[in-house]
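Take a protein:
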Amino acid sequence: MKKIMTLLMASIFLFGISLLGSGCAEAAELNVLVPTERAVYQRNEKNQADMLVRVKYEAEKNVTAILWASDNKQVSEEITLAATADDATVYEGTIPGVPAGGWYKLDVQAKDTADGQGEVYDTIEQIGVGEVFITGGQSNSCNFGGAKTTAQEDMVSAFNPKTDTWQHCEDAQPCISGFSDGNGYGSPWPSAGDELYAALEVPIGFVTTGFGGSTIADLLDKHYAPILDAIESLRPYGYRAFLLHQGEGDSGIGTKKEDYAESLKKLIDQTREDAGYDLTWVIANAAYTPYTSLAAETEILDAQKEACDEQTTFLGPLTDDMDKDSGYRLKKDNLHFNEEGLKEHGRRWAEVIVQKIIPDYSQLQPDPQPTSTPPAQTTEPTVPPAGNSPTPTQPSVPVVTNSPLPTQQTASVKIISNKGKVFKTGIFQYKITADSKGNKKVKVTAINGKNKKSIIIPKKVKYKGSSYQVRSLDKKALKKLKKVKKIKVPASLYKICKSQFKGKKVAIQKY
């Protein structure tokens, strides 16, 4: 009898363990990929953002999301996320019409579709809708100031391209551009963020791409990767404009006005091609160094002014009056800004941004409350109409919002087959593998990046006015990448890249 009881108890115990194990197996982990904590979405012409939500969940459940205000009032209806076509474990959806402001809280859960009970949860506590900027240029655009500064406002964030996450905006600014990161000191962006928040009362976000000592040609060639990374990484959130502070490097080497203008135009055009629309630019009027002539500086200042049409390209703050006698420069080099100079630099940026590129939202009428069914997702960024004087109904500046990744539209023209053609764009060489109408594809056949530490393989490329999808990769194309440490690739190329770099310390990220 005792033996029977022992066997019976053991059976019950093992049965309980098996139930527990099966329950654990079903409880898949749920993680929010977009947004991350402190994320800022770019508001559109309606003073709202369509908030993309992307989660990782390796199970088949009903995955939903809902947004709350800081006072626990419901901001949105609950939406259902759908598994993406490329990856069934990644779920996406859009919360439409989220008003500018924050911080908001996002609750995501996986439910049993039968009874609607919550199974797994994840929460993002701080999300904002406001103004987002990509910053670039040379040392005075990044971390070379005399003191580390910190945004005093909690509503000012910085995007970290190393981790694809957001953080509070404080120096040194997170970036992947090498020299700017290595110096590790002050920038104007925390101060600019504070000034912008005081004027606009919405969350502010920055991502830094500058590289110390760059000429304008360098930014297009040697140091373009961080700029492209920012454009691609911020697509889920959107961005208002690119802010450029550069010129000292070119006045120092005597670059002529026409040469500077040509390189600047190419740089602007490249960012707009990669963004998929006419990305707004604001260009600082800057060329001062303590060791160059006034004539050399004037060449650059004039080129910067003439590049600005005040429609989609705007003249930014003048900083050449902040010279060695102004008290704003470091005494050790009379070139980089001290702490007071950083604050004044940031204040000037904020002043120009508010005056020139922020529409007047004050008289907009609120839209009706969003429903639980989001509007159809488009593939083009929202672009407000152009105009010199912003009005509540006619903002002057095109803005890329947080719609799903935009794809460039091909013009309706007579199709001329280019199949088999080989061409180069930047460091990449391509071969056209398919060229029928609506089925334009290329293969990457070579990457001339032997000294590159960071590479982004684009999803699409233009050739003779047509846009081609990058869909395949020659195995030999990766052999020259001897120093690469980080590579971003389209999802379709992820496996082949991973196999080629197997056993090597290379971070491979698909997008």
Q: What stands out?
A: The mean pLDDT is 82. The two ends are 64 Å apart (CA to CA).
